[in-house]
Amino acid sequence: MFWYSSMIILVPALLLTIYAQYKVKSTYAKYSKVAVRSGMRGADVANAVLRDAGVSVSELTPIPGNLTDHYDPRRRALRLSEGVYYGETVAALGVAAHEAGHAIQHSHSYAPLALRNVIYPVASIGTNLGQVLFVLGFIMSWNQMLMNIGIWLFSGAVFFTLLTLPVEFNASRRAMVALANGGYLEPDELKGARAVLSAAALTYVAAAMMAVLQLLRMIMLSRRR
Ligand SMILES: [Zn+2]
After folding, report:
1. Cα(70) to centroid(ligand 1), Å
2. 1, 25, 160, 211: least CB-packed within 10 angstroms?
3. Where are the domains of the chain?
4. Strands annotated E in 82-199
5. Tens of pLDDT along 173-197?
Protein backbone atom coordinates (compact mmCIF):
# COMPACT_ATOMS: atom_id res chain seq x y z
CA MET A 1 0.00 0.00 0.00
CA PHE A 2 1.26 3.43 -0.97
CA TRP A 3 0.55 4.75 2.56
CA TYR A 4 3.37 2.56 3.90
CA SER A 5 5.69 2.44 0.91
CA SER A 6 5.75 6.28 0.77
CA MET A 7 7.31 6.27 4.24
CA ILE A 8 10.59 5.37 2.56
CA ILE A 9 11.15 9.04 1.67
CA LEU A 10 11.40 9.78 5.42
CA VAL A 11 14.35 7.41 5.87
CA PRO A 12 17.16 9.93 5.11
CA ALA A 13 15.73 12.34 7.71
CA LEU A 14 15.33 9.50 10.20
CA LEU A 15 18.96 8.46 9.76
CA LEU A 16 20.14 12.06 10.11
CA THR A 17 18.03 12.44 13.28
CA ILE A 18 19.59 9.35 14.83
CA TYR A 19 23.08 10.49 13.85
CA ALA A 20 22.49 14.03 15.16
CA GLN A 21 21.21 12.70 18.50
CA TYR A 22 24.26 10.50 18.86
CA LYS A 23 26.57 13.36 17.82
CA VAL A 24 25.11 15.92 20.21
CA LYS A 25 25.15 13.49 23.16
CA SER A 26 28.70 12.28 22.55
CA THR A 27 30.14 15.74 21.82
CA TYR A 28 28.42 17.25 24.84
CA ALA A 29 29.64 14.39 27.05
CA LYS A 30 33.19 14.77 25.76
CA TYR A 31 33.46 18.53 26.35
CA SER A 32 31.58 18.34 29.66
CA LYS A 33 34.72 16.68 30.95
CA VAL A 34 37.05 19.43 29.72
CA ALA A 35 37.47 22.04 32.47
CA VAL A 36 37.96 25.65 31.37
CA ARG A 37 41.15 27.39 32.46
CA SER A 38 39.33 30.62 33.40
CA GLY A 39 37.39 28.75 36.09
CA MET A 40 34.17 30.52 35.03
CA ARG A 41 30.80 28.76 35.32
CA GLY A 42 28.19 28.74 32.58
CA ALA A 43 26.09 31.21 34.55
CA ASP A 44 29.07 33.58 34.90
CA VAL A 45 29.67 33.52 31.16
CA ALA A 46 25.97 34.00 30.32
CA ASN A 47 26.03 37.05 32.60
CA ALA A 48 29.26 38.35 31.10
CA VAL A 49 28.08 37.89 27.48
CA LEU A 50 24.80 39.71 28.27
CA ARG A 51 26.67 42.50 30.05
CA ASP A 52 29.11 42.91 27.13
CA ALA A 53 26.12 43.23 24.79
CA GLY A 54 24.33 45.65 27.11
CA VAL A 55 21.36 43.28 27.38
CA SER A 56 19.51 42.39 30.59
CA VAL A 57 17.15 39.49 31.32
CA SER A 58 14.52 39.26 34.05
CA GLU A 59 15.98 36.04 35.43
CA LEU A 60 18.94 33.73 34.99
CA THR A 61 18.20 30.49 36.79
CA PRO A 62 19.28 26.83 36.90
CA ILE A 63 16.70 24.19 35.91
CA PRO A 64 16.78 20.38 36.26
CA GLY A 65 17.54 18.05 33.37
CA ASN A 66 20.16 17.60 30.71
CA LEU A 67 20.24 19.90 27.64
CA THR A 68 17.05 21.60 28.87
CA ASP A 69 18.66 25.03 28.43
CA HIS A 70 16.46 27.65 26.81
CA TYR A 71 15.56 31.30 26.62
CA ASP A 72 11.90 32.16 27.20
CA PRO A 73 11.13 35.39 25.27
CA ARG A 74 7.73 35.90 26.95
CA ARG A 75 9.28 36.14 30.42
CA ARG A 76 12.71 37.28 29.20
CA ALA A 77 14.06 34.38 31.27
CA LEU A 78 17.33 32.59 30.63
CA ARG A 79 17.16 29.09 32.09
CA LEU A 80 20.24 26.90 32.10
CA SER A 81 20.35 23.21 32.96
CA GLU A 82 22.20 22.62 36.24
CA GLY A 83 25.16 21.08 34.42
CA VAL A 84 25.52 24.21 32.31
CA TYR A 85 24.67 26.75 35.03
CA TYR A 86 27.24 25.42 37.49
CA GLY A 87 29.55 23.76 34.98
CA GLU A 88 33.07 25.11 34.57
CA THR A 89 33.53 23.20 31.33
CA VAL A 90 33.95 23.96 27.62
CA ALA A 91 30.51 22.45 26.87
CA ALA A 92 28.78 24.44 29.63
CA LEU A 93 30.27 27.76 28.52
CA GLY A 94 29.43 27.10 24.86
CA VAL A 95 25.78 26.33 25.63
CA ALA A 96 25.48 29.23 28.11
CA ALA A 97 26.82 31.71 25.55
CA HIS A 98 24.45 30.28 22.89
CA GLU A 99 21.41 30.78 25.12
CA ALA A 100 22.60 34.30 25.97
CA GLY A 101 22.76 34.77 22.18
CA HIS A 102 19.00 34.14 22.01
CA ALA A 103 18.38 36.80 24.67
CA ILE A 104 20.51 39.24 22.63
CA GLN A 105 18.56 38.35 19.45
CA HIS A 106 15.34 39.09 21.31
CA SER A 107 16.52 42.43 22.65
CA HIS A 108 17.78 43.41 19.15
CA SER A 109 14.47 42.30 17.58
CA TYR A 110 16.32 39.89 15.29
CA ALA A 111 13.80 39.40 12.47
CA PRO A 112 13.73 35.57 12.11
CA LEU A 113 13.22 35.21 15.89
CA ALA A 114 10.47 37.84 15.94
CA LEU A 115 8.70 36.12 13.02
CA ARG A 116 9.11 32.74 14.67
CA ASN A 117 7.49 33.99 17.88
CA VAL A 118 4.56 35.37 15.87
CA ILE A 119 3.83 32.14 13.99
CA TYR A 120 4.51 29.88 17.00
CA PRO A 121 0.80 29.52 18.01
CA VAL A 122 -0.19 28.50 14.46
CA ALA A 123 2.78 26.19 14.09
CA SER A 124 2.21 24.40 17.39
CA ILE A 125 -1.40 23.63 16.39
CA GLY A 126 -0.47 22.87 12.78
CA THR A 127 1.96 20.08 13.60
CA ASN A 128 -0.66 17.80 15.14
CA LEU A 129 -3.97 19.08 13.81
CA GLY A 130 -2.55 19.23 10.28
CA GLN A 131 -1.58 15.58 10.40
CA VAL A 132 -4.84 14.49 12.07
CA LEU A 133 -6.98 16.26 9.46
CA PHE A 134 -4.84 14.84 6.69
CA VAL A 135 -5.20 11.26 7.97
CA LEU A 136 -8.96 11.78 8.42
CA GLY A 137 -9.21 13.04 4.86
CA PHE A 138 -7.19 10.08 3.66
CA ILE A 139 -9.36 7.53 5.51
CA MET A 140 -12.58 9.20 4.31
CA SER A 141 -11.76 7.93 0.82
CA TRP A 142 -9.64 10.89 -0.22
CA ASN A 143 -11.62 13.80 1.14
CA GLN A 144 -9.52 16.27 -0.85
CA MET A 145 -10.62 19.32 1.13
CA LEU A 146 -9.68 17.83 4.51
CA MET A 147 -6.34 16.66 3.14
CA ASN A 148 -5.64 20.11 1.71
CA ILE A 149 -6.48 21.87 4.99
CA GLY A 150 -4.19 19.37 6.73
CA ILE A 151 -1.40 20.12 4.27
CA TRP A 152 -1.78 23.90 4.69
CA LEU A 153 -1.78 23.65 8.50
CA PHE A 154 1.27 21.39 8.45
CA SER A 155 3.03 23.82 6.07
CA GLY A 156 2.91 26.41 8.86
CA ALA A 157 4.72 23.99 11.13
CA VAL A 158 7.30 23.28 8.42
CA PHE A 159 7.90 27.00 7.95
CA PHE A 160 8.46 27.27 11.71
CA THR A 161 11.11 24.54 11.76
CA LEU A 162 12.84 26.19 8.77
CA LEU A 163 12.86 29.57 10.55
CA THR A 164 14.46 27.85 13.53
CA LEU A 165 17.60 27.28 11.43
CA PRO A 166 18.74 30.93 11.00
CA VAL A 167 17.76 31.61 14.63
CA GLU A 168 19.93 28.76 15.92
CA PHE A 169 22.89 29.35 13.59
CA ASN A 170 22.86 33.05 14.43
CA ALA A 171 22.76 32.41 18.21
CA SER A 172 25.78 30.10 17.90
CA ARG A 173 27.64 32.64 15.76
CA ARG A 174 26.96 35.33 18.37
CA ALA A 175 28.12 32.93 21.11
CA MET A 176 31.43 32.13 19.40
CA VAL A 177 32.19 35.84 18.76
CA ALA A 178 31.27 36.77 22.34
CA LEU A 179 33.37 33.95 23.82
CA ALA A 180 36.39 34.92 21.69
CA ASN A 181 36.11 38.70 22.10
CA GLY A 182 35.48 38.47 25.85
CA GLY A 183 38.44 36.13 26.25
CA TYR A 184 36.22 33.70 28.17
CA LEU A 185 37.65 30.73 26.28
CA GLU A 186 41.11 30.24 24.87
CA PRO A 187 41.59 29.27 21.19
CA ASP A 188 41.79 25.51 21.80
CA GLU A 189 38.76 25.70 24.11
CA LEU A 190 36.84 27.66 21.47
CA LYS A 191 37.24 24.72 19.09
CA GLY A 192 35.52 22.44 21.61
CA ALA A 193 32.66 24.92 22.15
CA ARG A 194 32.21 25.16 18.38
CA ALA A 195 32.02 21.36 18.11
CA VAL A 196 29.28 21.26 20.78
CA LEU A 197 27.24 24.02 19.10
CA SER A 198 27.67 22.49 15.62
CA ALA A 199 26.39 19.14 16.89
CA ALA A 200 23.38 20.89 18.45
CA ALA A 201 22.72 22.70 15.16
CA LEU A 202 22.66 19.38 13.34
CA THR A 203 19.62 18.27 15.40
CA TYR A 204 17.72 21.32 14.08
CA VAL A 205 18.78 20.53 10.51
CA ALA A 206 17.51 16.97 10.97
CA ALA A 207 14.18 18.23 12.36
CA ALA A 208 13.76 20.62 9.43
CA MET A 209 14.58 17.88 6.93
CA MET A 210 12.06 15.55 8.58
CA ALA A 211 9.34 18.22 8.46
CA VAL A 212 9.97 19.01 4.78
CA LEU A 213 9.94 15.32 3.80
CA GLN A 214 6.76 14.70 5.82
CA LEU A 215 5.09 17.55 3.95
CA LEU A 216 6.34 16.13 0.66
CA ARG A 217 4.89 12.75 1.56
CA MET A 218 1.51 14.30 2.43
CA ILE A 219 1.44 16.06 -0.94
CA MET A 220 2.38 12.81 -2.74
CA LEU A 221 -0.36 10.89 -0.90
CA SER A 222 -3.00 13.51 -1.65
CA ARG A 223 -2.21 13.42 -5.38
CA ARG A 224 -2.27 9.62 -5.57
CA ARG A 225 -5.83 9.18 -6.70
ZN1 LIG B 1 19.25 27.76 20.55
Report:
1. 7
2. 1
3. 2-223
4. none
5. 999 999 999 999 999 999 999 999 9
